[in-house]
């Protein structure tokens, strides 16, 4: 029993010394300074990010206003974004329509048919066939057309 008490005493003394060594290295003032530095660095980073976002937003707004021209004059930023987004959505819808084989707005159906007929007579494939090709098939087709009609290979 006496050996067990001695071991416990030795263990308690070792734990006390270990804790004392840890507390001796602790400097409250230095910890506070480091915390303040971390806080200042985080605030500076947040300000930098906010400034970058502000510049990005301003450049984006300027681009939208330039793209809309007179249509954007006298409008608020929110109105300009709404008009711009609507215009872009229209362009995307038009592109999907054309990709699906439809005729672009403003192009007579007869002109589209003539163009498609010319492409098919020269290449043996319709525009829709060409659009449905994989990139590898398009590359092979382009090389075949270059051989057949001449042109610089990439």
Helices, by number, come to 6
Q: Give the terminus-to-terminus CA distance.
A: 91 Å
Helix content: over 70%
Mean pLDDT: 82
The proportion of residues in beta strands is: under 5%
| Rg value | 36 Å
Describe this structure in words.
- By secondary structure, the protein is an all-alpha fold.
- 81% of the residues lie in helices and 0% in strands.
- The protein has six helices and no strands.
- The relative contact order is 0.03.
- The mean pLDDT is 82.
SSE inventory with pairings:
Blueprint lengths: L1 H24 L2 H41 L8 H23 L9 H15 L3 H6 L2 H15 L5
What is the structure about, briefly put?
The protein is mainly alpha-helical.
Properties at a glance:
154 residues, mainly alpha, 6 helices, elongated
């Amino acid at each position: 029993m006496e050996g067990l008490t001695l071991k416990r005493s030795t263990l308690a003394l070792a734990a006390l010394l270990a804790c004392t060594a840890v507390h001796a290295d602790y400097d409250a003032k230095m910890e506070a300074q480091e915390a303040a530095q971390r806080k200042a660095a985080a605030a500076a980073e947040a300000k930098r990010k906010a400034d970058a976002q502000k510049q990005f937003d301003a450049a984006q707004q300027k681009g939208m206003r330039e793209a809309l021209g007179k249509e954007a004059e006298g409008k608020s930023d929110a109105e300009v974004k709404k008009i711009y987004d609507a215009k872009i959505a229209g362009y995307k819808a038009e592109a999907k329509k054309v990709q699906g084989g439809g005729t672009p707005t403003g192009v007579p159906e007869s002109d589209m048919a003539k163009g498609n007929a010319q492409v098919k007579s020269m290449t043996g494939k319709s525009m829709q066939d060409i659009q449905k090709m994989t990139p590898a098939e398009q590359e092979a087709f382009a090389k075949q057309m270059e051989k057949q009609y001449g042109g610089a290979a990439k």
